[in-house]
Amino acid sequence: MAAGLARVPSCYYHHLILKNKNGLSASVAVPTSLKKMVTNAAAAASSSINHGEYRSIAERVSLEKEIKKSKFIAIAAPISDEESAFAFLSEVRDPRATHNCWAFKVGQHSRCNDDGEPSGTAGKPIQSAILSSHIDRVMVVVIRYFGGIKLGTGGLVRAYGGVTSECLRNAPTCLVKSKVPMAVEVPFDLLGLVQHQLQHFQVEDIEQDYETGKDGFAMVSFKVDFDQVEKLENAVKANCSRQLVFYNQ
């Protein structure tokens, strides 16, 4: 079984609130650039998981099997959205093959295609195998090279569903935590201290905007694991001599 590495991109939520020093939350108007940052992050995950984490495959995997002289090659990969699913399909589909059938699942959204096989005999079994695996944000493409013996409707369903199930069973899985887009207004003299805390919590995509916000302040934006938001805020506040304004969903 051939396997190659493909990392799973992070996912995000969509809502903006401001927390005050008493821990109370309320909707606020924020600078346009910050709104855009949060909205774009949320749009990238319009089909995101509701509970903040999900199980996906950790890397691309493949499985090859011969069934009545037809060769079936199932290739599974982690995806982030429909666009990345079709990019993966374009990469692995073989125009010389008899059929390139596929299905994918991203949150509550899933699609499948029989690619010329009798309706419901290829895409649907692949999709059913994905749903049964409880793996999310994944696409499986099953490539078939016809060997001269017809499998019949039942045989096709078993073949496509079977190679997909076996491929996913062999795939290493991982628990993926959703990333929350956040930002904090930081006085210039506290930037070093805040950056140290952000690195400690292993946040991603740190950006500093000196044009947004009040004079003498920088707007620092980043993404952090959904279950680390409160801990990060508390750590920053505990190490700063002044109250900082956090923006998060």
Automatic annotation (TrEMBL):
Gene3D superfamilies: Impact, N-terminal domain. It holds the Pfam family Impact_N. SUPFAM superfamilies: Ribosomal protein S5 domain 2-like. Coiled coil: none annotated. Residues 68-168 form the Impact N-terminal domain. It comes from the Eukaryota. Belongs to the IMPACT family. This is Impact N-terminal domain-containing protein.
